[in-house]
């Protein structure tokens, strides 16, 4: 599905053409946008895989309904977990929607970019600190608990580990499912 940004429109408006995306990429831009994600996006596109990347969307505190619909209408979501992923409420809202879509048989694959599934699942390290900060700043404890549950569920999905130089782990390429 092609993304069209409306010139002169409000900061949260964008429209879609009728076609859906093959892949939705969820990532923390400051960690991965100008390296790993840009290379992944280019590789997917070169292979004819219609991929959504939110590099031109206006930023705000709340994720737009249109972006949630884009996740829902994608065939697959790839979550690139990086050390600051959980510090973004935007990323966590995307993740919550992705996990919801997984329950409706959407294919979901995580990439563990210099983080381990256990750090995400056990919510320690930077993930634990970010969630504790969200609990202090966000009045809706149910929302933070949904994020915690989504992180735990996503950490157990079979995915890939990023090591160095844009190579994935040679140990079987695809990791086994992790159990929290």
From TrEMBL:
SUPFAM superfamilies reported for this sequence: Toll/Interleukin receptor TIR domain
A Pfam family recorded for this sequence: TIR
Record has Lipid biosynthesis as a keyword: no
Residue ranges constituting the TIR domain according to the UniProt record: 19-180
Keywords associated with the record: NAD
Biological process, per Gene Ontology: signal transduction
Protein name from the UniProt record: TIR domain-containing protein
């Amino acid at each position: 599905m092609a993304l069209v940004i409306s010139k002169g429109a409000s900061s949260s408006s964008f429209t879609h053409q009728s076609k859906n995306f093959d892949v939705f990429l969820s990532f923390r831009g400051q960690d991965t946008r100008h390296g790993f994600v840009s290379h992944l996006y280019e590789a997917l596109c070169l292979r004819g895989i219609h991929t959504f990347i939110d590099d031109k969307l206006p930023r705000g505190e709340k994720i737009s309904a249109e972006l949630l619909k884009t996740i829902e209408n994608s065939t697959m979501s790839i979550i690139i977990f990086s050390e600051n992923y959980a510090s973004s409420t935007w990323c966590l809202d995307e993740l919550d929607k992705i996990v919801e879509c997984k329950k409706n048989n959407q294919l979901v694959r995580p990439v563990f970019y210099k983080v381990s599934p256990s750090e995400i699942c056990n919510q320690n390290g930077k993930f634990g600190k970010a969630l504790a900060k969200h609990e202090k700043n966000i009045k809706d404890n149910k929302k933070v608990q949904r994020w915690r549950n989504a992180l735990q569920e996503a950490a157990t999905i079979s995915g890939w580990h990023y090591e160095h130089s844009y190579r994935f782990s040679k140990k079987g390429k695809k990791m086994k499912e992790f159990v929290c």
